[in-house]
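C-alpha cells please, single chain.
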Amino acid sequence: MKRSRVVAWRCCIALSLIVCALPSSKLVAADVQELHISTNDSVTTRTADVYFQAPVDRTVRVGDRIDTPAISTIARDGALRLRARFAPQADYDRLTTVVYEQTATGTFVVTSMTSAYAALAGGYDLDVPDLSAAAGFDAS
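Here you go.
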C-alpha cells in the first residue's frame, strides 16, 4: 500500500487525511482507483469522487452548501408523487440525486438527473414517476 496525503476543503475548512491506495506497479493499464469524500448535515449530503491510477498528494474540494429545492406534490391519488425543483449550481455540474423517504414505512424513491438532461429540460425537476401502469406496482 502507498500512502498519499489528501487535503479536503469543505466550507473553507481544510481537513488533511492520509489515504491508502495500491501502488501503480500493482495495477494493470485499465485499472483505476477511487477516492470518495462525503460530508453531510441534517438535510444534504455532498460528495466528491476522484478517480486515479497513481496515488499522489492532492487537494479535493467539496462543493458549497446545496440550495434547498422547492418540494411540491404532483399527485396524491394512488401513490404520492413529489417533485423537487431547483436551479443549477456551478459546483454540481454532473449529476443530481434526490431521495424521497417515508421513514415510518421504510419506503423511499431515488430520482437522478444529469446536468446535460437538465439543460435540455429547462432546469432540474426531479419527479417521482407515475408507476401505476407498471406490472406488480403496489400504490399502497
